[in-house]
Write a structure and sequence with these properties.
The chain is an alpha/beta fold. It is built from eleven helices and 14 strands. Bound molecules: flavin mononucleotide. The site of flavin mononucleotide has 22 residues, from strand 4.
Length: 359
Amino acid sequence: MSASLFSPTTLGPLTLGNRLVMAPMTRNRAPGNVPNPLMARYYAERADVGLIVTEGTSPSPNGLGYPSIPGAYSSEQGAGWQLVADAVHKAGGKIFVQLMHCGRVAHPLNLPAGAEVVSSSAVAAAGQMHTPEGPKDHPVPRALRSDELPALIAELVASAKNVVAAGCDGVELHAANGYLLEQFLNPACNQRTDAYGGSAANRIRFVVEVAAAVAKAIGGERVGIRLSPYGTNGGMTSSYDGIDAQYLLLTEQLVATGIQYLHVVDHSKMGAPEVPASLKRAMRRAWPRSFILAGGYDKASASAAIVEGHADLIAFGRPVLANPGFATRLERDLKLNDPDYSTLYTPGEKGYVDYPPAR
Ligand SMILES: Cc1cc2nc3c(=O)[nH]c(=O)nc-3n(C[C@H](O)[C@H](O)[C@H](O)COP(=O)(O)O)c2cc1C
């Protein structure tokens, strides 16, 4: 039954060795926000999955949010991504860079000089975040004016072009987990009264405009998007009136942009409400191209999801960060290392490239 999880497939023009995806995972190993040889090694050691989606990567200084996450907006960052893409390709893999603008999930102490915390509305995220001066409350962001949105789209387009020019296979737009794009989708955060808020059709507008512009710039077959309906990260409300209808409308409008894949993450194994199976299936039915599911999968549940046709690809997060050669281990039922939660976001090699190889 597991055969099809390990059989080759296609993603637009790309041939993937199997249906396993490395889920995007922030690891804070990019001092100065520039991808580096250590990151190239980490990704190359996991390149036996069909597709790697990188950690969230900022399209601008404003989007950086956390310490030592990579960016994609400068030529130095582009050169860093070239190192990573070359290493992954040499190891036989494919790589999409996840473009993540943190929006209000940020703190001025984590941002470079001149950058600011922005969002759909001037509503602070609940809770605190780590800064060099210890944990601090999320600040009230500045609400973006509608005449600023074209520049934001241009930043995402420029970053997508930058990483594709560096040899990466494509980009994933991060519209999940409470970051800027979801800050437009979610009505508790988005309190706008212009064309970008107030109704489902208006709340999805910015995300659809971003997807259309990035697809036009680099080709829809090189673009995917990640969505987390019912997620609670970053102070998102987990459910609201019309949520399923809003995500279906979004799916329909994304179809028209020509982007290649829809990547739906269900955080119910991490404490959020479950995404109803009926919504996942309706999104799958409405999507004519590649469909990815993520969130708490193991070999048996991933195989079942592929065999039963619920998805084309399954993304694994924590098991991949802890296991170089993950696809081979999973296929051969070799022992899997457990992730070390104390080193997820710490600098350097420890907990990053020192997990024991398969034996
Ligand atoms: C250390 C860590 C960092 C993460 N960073 C990101 C990120 O940058 N972008 C994103 O979309 N999801 C991020 N996630 C969520 C994962 O992509 C994934 O959806 C989640 O871990 C559930 O999958 P799993 O049960 O297979 O680990 C992160 C998860 C972990 C554990």
